[in-house]
Design brief:
Pfam families: ABC_tran. Keywords: Amino-acid transport, ATP-binding, Nucleotide-binding, Transport. InterPro entries: AAA+_ATPase, ABC_transporter-like_ATP-bd, ABC_transporter-like_CS, BCAA_Transport_ATP-bd_LivF, P-loop_NTPase. It is a single chain. By secondary structure, the protein is α/β, with parallel strands linked by helices. The protein has a domain at 1-8 and 48-69. 37% of the residues lie in helices and 25% in strands. The strands form two sheets. Strands 3, 5, 6, 7, 8, 9 and 10 form a seven-stranded mixed beta sheet that branches. α3 (93-99) packs parallel to α6 (136-148).
């Protein structure tokens, strides 16, 4: 699904990622934790093809981001929920979700919409409401739902807990565990908070100064009990 070998990325004169190795298997939930400025956003944007890298190899669902356009990588099955959610504030909840399904047939769109609204009943209740009037937690649900509308095989999320209360963060992570298990989607999540993730993710990795520290293996039963 995702294979990174010796990745190095510069932003201007600053070395952000250095000789980074990472793999994510089908249906796996991998969390990358690290402080602000550790390189988490840079890593996810590089995987999506939004940022170039100067050394190393990246393979995303058979595509090299250095040679494929971001939309081609997305169509191959990569979903990306950016930091700050970035919903379309002036559009309704329903229209935001529909934007994520542009490559689906009418029947696929209908079926996927039903699954998303079943996962997030609050979005069903707010279907006609403008996204900009939603609470932070509701906007995060919408951002995740919009990404799921494209039926991704890998879902990446950048700081989904940003600005959310702990209880809402926990519920969001539990929803992601449900997506992993019931939608058969691999998840790569970048976060600063660590305690909740060690209960839910299959593996947690520490990103520090542009390098990944030795991984922590989390027993499958621990994640399953949290869902």
């Amino acid at each position: 699904m995702l294979d990174i070998d010796g990745l190095s990325v510069r932003r201007g004169t600053r070395q952000v990622l250095t000789d980074l190795n990472l793999s994510v298997s089908a249906g796996e939930f991998v969390a990358i934790v690290g402080n602000n400025g550790a390189g988490k956003t840079t890593l996810l944007r590089t995987i999506s093809g939004l940022l170039p890298h100067h050394r190393g190899r990246v393979s995303v669902l058979g595509h090299d981001p250095a040679r494929a356009r971001p939309d081609q990588i997305a169509q191959a099955g990569l979903g990306h929920v950016p930091e700050g959610r970035r919903v379309f504030a002036s559009l309704s909840v329903l229209d935001n979700l529909t934007v994520g399904a542009t490559t689906l047939s009418r029947r696929q769109r209908k079926d996927t919409m039903e699954r998303v609204l079943s996962l997030f009943p609050r979005l069903q209740e707010r279907a006609a409401q403008r996204a900009g009037t939603l609470s932070g937690g509701e906007q995060q649900m919408l951002a995740i739902g919009r990404a799921l509308m494209a039926r991704p095989r890998i879902l990446m999320l950048d700081e989904p807990s940003l600005g959310l209360a702990p209880i809402i963060t926990r519920n969001t992570f539990k929803h992601l565990r449900t997506v992993q298990q019931e939608w058969d989607v691999a998840i790569l999540l970048a976060e600063q908070r660590t305690r909740i993730l060690t209960e839910i993710a299959d593996r947690t990795l520490l990103l520090s100064s542009g390098r990944l520290e030795p991984e922590q293996q989390v027993p499958r039963t621990a994640g399953a009990s949290a869902s």
